[in-house]
Records
---
Amino acid sequence: MRVLVVEDDTNLNRQLKDALTEAGYAVDVAFDGEEGHFLGDTEPYDAVILDIGLPRMDGLSVLEEWRRAGKTTPVLLLTARDRWSDKVQGIDSGADDYVAKPFHMEEVLARVRALVRRAAGHASNEIVAGSVRLDARSGKVTVDGLSVKLTSHELRLLSYLMHHKGKVISRTELTEHLYDQDFDRDSNTIEVFVGRLRKKLPEDCIQTVRGLGYQIVGD
């Protein structure tokens, strides 16, 4: 999953990026509204964390322009605790959720998980495909109840496929959603990690749809 953080406070921006990266997300960052608007308009993200008080272009204006352009990416607004009017205006402008500063990082991570989960049509943190179970909160994967050890890249790939279970996902889409903009995107990287995952999961769990991509199958 790929997340954009738009926050002008350098320390907070870094803290958010570090926490999201540790939680398994690919993270891009921006420090002003114009840069954030450009990235959100041109790159595919699974969620955006957007501060309201940004230089060059405020967060609400960024959000409104995205929504007018038809962008449906889930957006979590960062607001000042005493500005309840910002929260109301943010929701009316198209935000999916908000959190007030100062906040606990675990709350932000939980809200991002919920946004990604709901956008993919899942009500629970646990996603099931046949005998494979993924706990999106802990990152734990089990097959027939037995824990499966995955690398961070393998988990990121499996998580995206599980969130979009039953859908055919192209290699291009996987690359765009699993790696940040600075990652050296080798065309064979996805195939390598799919091959590794297949050795750890039930046979035919990940199917190749010739010429189109991959899909997770299951109940």
Note: Residues 105-119 form the longest helix (15 residues).
---
Amino acid sequence: MEASAQPFIVGVRFSKVGKIYHFDASQLQDLKLGDVVVVETSRGWQLGEVAHLVSDPTPPPDGVWKQVDRRATPRDLLLRQTWQQREVEVMVSCRARAAELRLDGVKIVASEYSFDGTRLSILFSTESEEKVDLKSLRQDMQRLYNHTQVELRQIGPRDVAKIIGGMGACGLESRCCSKFLTDFSSISIRMAKEQGISLTPSEITGMCGRLRCCLIYEYEQYVTARQELPKKNKRVVTPQGEGKVIDVYPLREAVLVELPEVGYREFTKAEIQPAEELENFQKKAQNPCSGPGGEGCACGKDGAPKAE
């Protein structure tokens, strides 16, 4: 019995800097990178760009991939552009209505039509963690745009920064989230501590008010490098004598050592040796019978030669 043919899976992206979702394009074997396709998603019919051709696909949890419906036509592209031109109008109307309803803690960020205009998603964020009742706002927007199905969708502060864009705190013209980040990693204060970054809020907080995404970029390199270097206040032996580690430079693979009567000197990893390890090695060299019971040597437990 012949094995079933391998499905032709493609990765589709719906925005310039967005997640890639996998679809089965077995009916369109001639698809190439950059082609625009029509697919059905949980938010209605959408146009997406083929960003990846999956050579060895892993089956999804439910065992079934959604199908690519067809390659987009010029009419499809024009239809999407028509609806996109109305998204700013929707956002302005929704902001005005939210102000009338005195929803002060609610910020209307953007609106998104499906490419055929059958669904309208209004994206919002809130200043507090408490749930906000937006039933009246949704009903008002549904009456105003009764030709489509209206949905209010809450997004987090990082997604807000991604949509709005702007210059990063580091001076780059575009924020990382708007330029290339497709997923937001979990960031912790430990990452800043590990890299020796100042914990001043302005130094580690991004424009979204959360810890900066870039704290994770070099974190693994710092962790790996620190594992191979002695910690602060440890005693080490250097070519200029024994001293105490004052600071560690992970990326340079070096440490700053305070030497008696010499001062501060920097040494690389290859130039130093932990003082404790050296002392233990010297003790073993001077007393080879220090093991329990004198095992492996030519004398007994009390140091006397073993009887033949």
Note: The longest strand covers residues 44-54.
---
Amino acid sequence: MILLFRRLATTWTALVPILAVAVLALAWGRTIPVAVVVIAALFLAGSVLAAVHHAEVIAHRVGEPFGSLLLAVAVTVIEVALIISLTTSGGPAASSLARDTVFAAVMITCNGIVGLSLLVAALRRRVAVFNAEGTGGALATVATLSTLSLVLPTFTTSSPGPAFAPAQLAFAALASIALYGLFVLTQTLRHRDYFLPVEPAGQGADAAGHAAPPTTRAAAVSLALLLGALVAVVGLAKIESPAIETAVRAASLPQSAVGVVIALLVLLPETLAAVRAARRARVQVSLNLAFGSAMASIGLTIPTIAAASLWLKGPLLLGLGPTHIVLLVLTVVVATLTVVPGRATLLQAGVHLTLFAAFLLLAVSP
């Protein structure tokens, strides 16, 4: 029975990304009826679950922190492509889409994913244990990138509005690439042990951690299916975006809510993978996914948007408003206090989830 279940799981996780990409190809660039929108949404959900499965297969093969890094980068690369596509086709109304989506990604990862992961781990084992050295370095990088890219444009005076002058934008892009590259080097080579899971005292590793790793061929197949699933997730999210924008307008919500919904959809694979890792007492993997995704979102989006601004028309608005700056500062302070001890309880989880709830509330009712 167990063998049959595993075969069925393997079958659907292979079929869904292929069918989702087919649906994406048939619907791309066309005006689609409501029924197709619903079908696309179903395949979007299936692709998210399939992406998590294949990411875990690859992570088991290559080990940590390479597995979480691969998923974070893969999702973010396609997310950047989606942002560029929506920005180029959205006209002046999309001038702040990159800012809204990146800020939403930071809030979702640093409060939503972190809070859920700590909640799951603390409920199962009372205390969530992780490596403060590696997580602290990741948080410092996220805080620096967020401030340079999303806060400073609000206060600079060389260009009108919350936007960088060309030289300032070029510096922010180069700094983003440099810091992200330095972090990847630190995470994967020089101090890899800082980002490996920490086992709680008196508890063994999850049984899955001792299972035989998949073969190279199986990992390669999962990599191809993972990329297909992620393409489907982001492509179908774009197809769903007109329906999302229509719903936002019908509900009289601010335009920035579109960026929040897109970020929520795109980050679903990381969210599910992080929660599943937390259930296995691998909180460090969850935090690697959370802060790594936030870092990749800024470190890859800002340079790409900076390059795209050479041909994009209209201003590129990156600076946050006062409300969002307060949320960002509070998130950094709270996350620092969470990370420093290397241990967290339900209280820290509740604080992060409260901040995430506040972000969602202010996104729909600024």
Note: Residues 179 and 345 are 30 Å apart (CA to CA).
